[in-house]
Design goal:
Layout (H helix, E strand, L loop, with lengths): L9 H12 L5 E4 L9 E5 L4 E6 L17 H24 L3 E6 L4 H20 L5 H5 L1
Helix pairs in contact: 1-3
Bound molecules: zinc ion.
Length: 139
């Protein structure tokens, strides 16, 4: 039931080495919550940031996730289920206080690493000032 998420795909490796070059440390291909059956490609435990590298085909990228014409009856529901599972995992992890970041395999590793870095910076700051709720912001 792992679906079609392969580990160590080329875009994943590219992003991981880009992050390494910036001195960022993370765990790869782990389940951040033992009771949630969801492996995350790149996990920053301290900041509670979960990064997925999504394949354009399997996860229905708006740019390249074209529906296959052959065997559409087979692929279409399969891919729809993947996307549905993605959203479900996003919701489950978010509920546990994780920030979920999804990167498309077509994104350049440098740009994807920029997004991850910006997110980490944001999360570290949010933690220092005490994660403020919307009510706090309005006060
Ligand atoms: Zn794409």
């Amino acid at each position: 039931m792992r679906g079609n998420r392969k580990t160590d795909t080329r875009p994943e490796i590219a992003l991981r080495s880009a992050l390494h070059r910036r001195g960022l440390r993370f765990r790869k291909n782990v389940r951040p919550e033992p009771d949630i059956n969801c492996r995350v490609d790149i996990v920053f435990r301290g900041q509670r940031l979960a990064v997925f590298v999504d394949g354009c085909f399997w996860h229905s990228c708006p740019m390249h996730g074209t529906r296959p014409k052959t065997n559409a009856a087979y692929w279409t529901p399969k891919i729809a289920r993947n996307v549905e599972r993605d959203r479900m995992n996003d919701a489950l992890l978010t509920r546990r206080g994780w920030r979920v970041l999804r990167v498309w395999e077509h994104e350049a590793a440098t740009l994807a690493a920029n997004r991850v870095e910006a997110e980490l910076k944001y999360l570290s700051q949010a933690r220092c000032t005490g994660r403020s709720s919307t009510a706090d912001l309005q006060a």
